[in-house]
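Case study 2.
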Amino acid sequence: MNYFDFPIKEITLADPQYPEILKKITNPPQRLYFRGNLCRKILEKSLAVVGSRRITSYGQKVLDLLIPPLVAEGITIISGFMYGVDSLAHQKCLEFGGKTIAVFGCGLDVVYPPENEKLYNQILKTDGAVISEYSPNTKPHLWTYSQRNRIMAGLSTLGVLVIEAGEESGSLITARFAKRFDKKVFAVPGPITSSVSAGTNWLIQQQQALLVLSADDILGKKGEKSTKETQINLEPEEEKIFQVLEAEPLTVDEIAKSVGLDVAETGKILTLMSLKNIISEISGRYFLVH
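Prediction:
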């Protein structure tokens, strides 16, 4: 089944299916076009994730670290379907069994960027949604992307997370919309030598965004984590695995290689750690439970 097998539906502000949360923003779209699942439940817990189209290996690692625990909490990831952070945020969400919503800056019959056709299909097949305020065959323009940023900010219940953004980044426009709509803005700090982290570092420096070092900073569980960590009694091999997973989610093979154990032994330890609710597993990768 391909994206064009999913009918495009049109709703207006007066339609009961129109997202209530979007009605509350300044200048909400008078009509929305969508494919897929735009039910109320998918928007109950949602986070907009935005960032540079020139994503670096650092940005990729940040997404590897943050997306799994967010998905495990049932949070829908909203992003803009473009190159870089947007596309990878959608992909990571799907990889870990989550639901994602893509907000287009063009019509829904226009796959842009064209390399994302497979991603388009995956979003719909996994009960996510693609939406736009532009009629089906509208071509993308610079101004349409600036406009669609307000929809991403408007649909998010938890706020907007900025990962790698330059000084003139469109992601900063999304952050400004979020502030205007009285929503939280989160930012991941980056290297001071990186031009694609200049915007995120500026947001934090100017106190325009909350500093994010882990998913707990978004989920509001920082206090719970510190309490829990003092209660965990780890065996030496568990401690090694814990430290490895603090960096990123990994498969059992990757963990075994990192800690110098055979796969069978590693699997037994992972099972025990899962029973202790220290780690969790989605789609073959293990990550720390925050």
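The two ends are 36 Å apart (CA to CA).
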